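Hey, weird one. I pasted the Isoprenyl transferase sequence into the form twice and got a warning about non-standard characters only the second time. First submission, copied straight from the form history:
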Amino acid sequence: MTARPAPGGPAEQSAPRHVAIIMDGNGRWATARRLPRAAGHKAGADAVRRAVETAPRIGIEVLTLYAFSSENWKRPEEEVGYLFGLLKQYLRSEIAELDQNNVRLQLIGDWRALPADAVSLLESALERLSGNTGLTLVIALNYGARDELVRAARRLAERSRDGELDPADIDEDVLAAELFTARLPDPDLVIRTSGEERLSNFLLWQAAYSELVFTPVLWPDFGAEDLRQACAEFTARERRYGGL
């Protein structure tokens, strides 16, 4: 069941439990340095490593990274192939350290539609890290929030058709239980790098009451201090959830 704020006033402020990041700016980082876009994606993978290392040190329990959207298939075939190559390289090179650091992996999105060799590595990583109890690293792969909501609505319609569910019983919790994020708390904080200020079809349901931080820092330059500053901004805000 999705975690929701308790009624009756603002929640007690603390470090965000769940931080989600839209990792944007790899291409612009490369262009500014007259490098191929692939170089920007490679530098972005280093930023992923920094974020995963920093998150548990500042009290983050869940870190969700928007790695590949369902719209990213529209990019040039060569670039898409390079992104999948980076994903496979990351899994091979980082899995032992993730395991040593007690990181648990979860995937959201239609990730089984990725190339078969990538799916195989992802399944192996999920199995190896399944017993860990530290930071939950959630990677959004082939993910789109509208697609997620359509899938949930279709599933509820099927259950109603089959007599498993009375449509009158469908509420927010019932719908949330059909989302990819069913066993995760909603993100407290959503960060987008590179200066763009939009959600780009990312966690539209789950981010209904998230605090949003937009930073001009390009993702490959995003470091530990940038993550700390974003969390400090979150902590300084008063979350009202529509109340006074």
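That's the output from the first submission. The warning seems to come from a hidden character in my clipboard, not from the data itself. Helices lie at 26-32, 37-54, 77-100, 116-129, 145-161, 172-176, 224-236.
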